[in-house]
Write a structure and sequence with these properties.
By secondary structure, the chain is an alpha/beta fold. α6 (160-171) crosses α8. The longest helix has 25 residues, at 107-131. It contains eight helices and twelve strands. β7 and β8 form a beta hairpin. Bound molecules: calcium ion.
Amino acid sequence: MNKSLILVVEDDASVRNLITTTLKANGYRYQTAANGEMAVSDAASYNPDIVLLDLGLPDMDGMEVIRKIRSWSNMPIIVISARSEDQDKIGALDEGADDYLTKPFSVEELLARIRVAQRRLMLAGQHVSENSSVFENGELRIDYAAGIAWMQGEELHLTPIEYKLLCLLSKNVGKVLTHNYITECIWGSSWENDVASLRVYMATLRKKLEAKGGKNHSYIQTQIGVGYRMVK
Ligand code: CA
C-alpha cells in the first residue's frame, strides 16, 4: 500500500527536502515540482496517486494549480500552506482540494493525512472495480475485462489505439481531457506530432462509432484548442 507515487509541489527547498526525506523513509515514491507550471505538467505526465501542494508558489497561485488539475482529474490533492487563515482553507477546499495541512506541520501529521487519502483512494478503487467492468452510455457499451466495445449491439472493430482512446474517454465520461493529457496516457509523451496523430485517430474512431449507428448521438465532442470529451 505504501508504493503510492506522490507529487510534491513546493518551492521552498528545505520544506521540500523534509517532505521527500519523510516519504522516502516510509516507502513512498515521489516526484517534485518547484513551481505551478511544473506541477500541472508533472501531474499530467506522472499521474501521481496523491499531490501535496504548497499554495504559495512563485509563478502561479496554488488555487490555480488545483483548478487546472481538477479540469481533468480527481487525484487527491492535499494542500500544504503557511497561510493559516480560514479563508484560504475554504478557498482551496472549494476549488477541489481534499485535505489541508498548515505549516509548520509534524512529519506524523503529514503521514497521517497521506494515509487518509490512500484509504479514500482504495475505497474508491473497490467501488470502481465492482461497478466498472462494463460501461454503458446510450447505445455504447464497453466490456473492459473482455476488451470489446459495441454500438447498438454490434461489435466495434477498433485498433488498439482507438480502443485505448475510447476507454480513456469513457472512464472520464463528462470531463474534458486535454490533448496533452490524452497523448501522455496513450503514447507516454506529448510532442506536437502526437497531437496531430491524435486528431487522426479521433476522426477514425468517431467514424467507426457513427458507422455502427452512433450517428444520432455525438459521443465524442471536440473542445476546440483544448481536447475531447465523451458526452453522457
Ligand atoms: Ca511556498
